[in-house]
Amino acid sequence: MTTPTPSQSARSVLVTGGNRGIGRAIAEAFLAQGDLVAVTTRSGGAPEGALDLRCDVTDAAAVDAAFAEAEAAHGPVEVLVANAGITADTLLLRMSEDDWSSVIDTNLTGTFHLAKRAAKGMLRLRRGRIILISSVVGLLGSAGQVNYAASKAGLVGIARSLARELGSRSITTNVVAPGFIDTDMTAVLSDEQKAAIKTQVPLGRYGDVAEVANAVTWLASPGAAYVTGAVVPVDGGLGMGH
Ligand code: NDP
């Protein structure tokens, strides 16, 4: 019996929001398998071994410049992980225009900028992997997160459209939908909220950032070459059936 080929030669990988939380774990996982990793954030602090680039994903020109730097250092970007994201939670009637637009601009429009810039190079290469970090909330909905849920559901629409647009060039586009993962983003929840969430999760615990990174590196691996337009949950069973 043959085993699947593990890693191919080092690839140029770009991870947004890779200075902490889920994005950092993803960047570290690619670094550990020998890939060339560029990390983009607004505040810096990429893991050791990664190219540390400043880029606000809401700014298309900044995204273009970050890709140009990553390409100059590592060659054409073959794997994009669009992970940068924010929340601005509040109930609908209290949600300001800014609460709405800041989340949509970062999570959804930012991903549009990234995917558009990445696709340019990938179409030339005739291969590529685009992985978008959504959320279980995009599929289930969540009281107090109309903006965030809309942005994360929108990523599924982007991914499935790109899967159709780019598939003929061997470019796959997939979504990873984490459940509740221990990071700065969820640290703001109260103990009662955390306990209530755990009762809804069949596995009865929060996820670890490395568990999300595992799904991402798999989607970028040769073993996932025939997977596109998929939404891969990493949520302890929270979103089952969605
Ligand atoms: P964190 O809050 O820990 O990190 C968010 C990252 O995004 C930071 O690196 C931040 O860097 C970056 N970022 C935010 N805004 C921008 C911007 N405008 N331009 C560039 N970078 C930006 O979040 P998590 O690690 O928890 O989440 C990562 C992703 O996973 C997000 O998309 C989130 O929605 C998603 N997710 C998280 C879950 C969880 O339970 N934690 C569950 C489901 C999904 P900087 O501030 O330096 O720019």
Automatic annotation (TrEMBL):
Domain of life assignment? Bacteria
InterPro entries on file: KR_dom (IPR057326), NAD(P)-bd_dom_sf (IPR036291), Sc_DH/Rdtase_CS (IPR020904), SDR_fam (IPR002347)
Q: Which residue ranges run through the membrane?
A: none
Xref: Pfam families: adh_short_C2
Residue limits of the Ketoreductase domain? 11-184
Q: Which family does it belong to?
A: Belongs to the short-chain dehydrogenases/reductases (SDR) family.
Query: Which PANTHER family has this protein been placed in?
Result: 3-OXOACYL-[ACYL-CARRIER-PROTEIN] REDUCTASE FABG (PTHR42760:SF96), SHORT-CHAIN DEHYDROGENASES/REDUCTASES FAMILY MEMBER (PTHR42760)
Q: What is this protein called?
A: Beta-ketoacyl-ACP reductase
